[in-house]
Amino acid sequence: MTVKGIIKRLIGYKPKNVPVDKLAILRESGNLVYGDNCKFEGFSVASVGYKKGYPNVKIGNNCYLCCNIMLQDDAAQVIIGDGTYIGPGTLIFCKEKITFDNDIMVSWDCTFIDTNAHSLHSKERASDVADSMKGPLHKNWAVVKNAPVHIKSKSWIGFNSIILKGVTLEEGTIIGAGSVVSKSTEDYGIYAGNPAVLVKKTD
Fold first, then answer.
1. Which is one GO molecular function term here (predicted)?
2. Taking the mean position of all CA atoms in its chain, how far away is CA 60?
């Protein structure tokens, strides 16, 4: 080892491009709040902007999260209760509010979205591509419909499922793999298909 190398080791030298723990920064700024005994693997939060001190993501205790959260507004909010698992590849795309209660299991590659993302009218979305090339802050959300998503306690969502805007999964709902859920469910119902329909009741 060179003299320079020895000196660097002695003074605790670190290279300039040290990775920064983004979750720690978000927690320090108050944009991310989480409880005790939480485990994060591949978990990420991205937003078009943040307001310091505003809890965009609130997580309870004993959660295991491997998902990605994309916030489309600096006031968007994702709330995750206690004892919840959300698997890898799952995307939570939030414009206004998406809520997970307690003791929920979400498999891999699912999508939760509380917005249409684009207008249903062709003239209103004609400039969407050009606007997106300018950056997310140039998107015209005024012509887009949004509605909150609520996943109630003890629900289980199978892999590759999609939960669309305005949907409430009542307590104990099970969603079969690959389903597209466009309407709210009954409690302790098993749903499957595209669009998802009630298959049978459970407990």
1. acyltransferase activity
2. 14
Torsion of Cα atoms, 129 then 132 then 137 then 140, to 10°: 10
Global confidence as pTM: 0.88
How many domains does the chain divide into? 1
pLDDT in tens, 12-65: 444 444 445 889 999 999 999 999 999 999 999 999 999 999 999 999 999 999
102 contacts 153 by C-beta, under 8 angstroms: yes
Q: Is 14 helix (H, G, I), strand (E, B) or coil?
A: coil
Higher pLDDT, 107 or 18: 107
Is 131 part of a structural domain of the chain? yes
Cα distance between residue 164 and residue 137, in whole Å? 23
Domain hosting 69: range is 18-201
- 122 in a domain, yes or no? yes
Residue 13 lies in a domain: no
Three-state DSSP at 4 gives helix
The span from the CA of 85 to the CA of 83, in Å, is 7
Say how far apart CA 93 and CA 59 lie, in whole Å.
Answer: 16
* Amino acid code (one letter) for 128: D
- Does 168 map to a domain? yes
- Look up the CATH number of the domain holding residue 88: 2.160.10.10
E-only strand ranges, 66-155: 68-71, 77-80, 85-86, 91-94, 97-100, 105-106, 111-113, 149-151
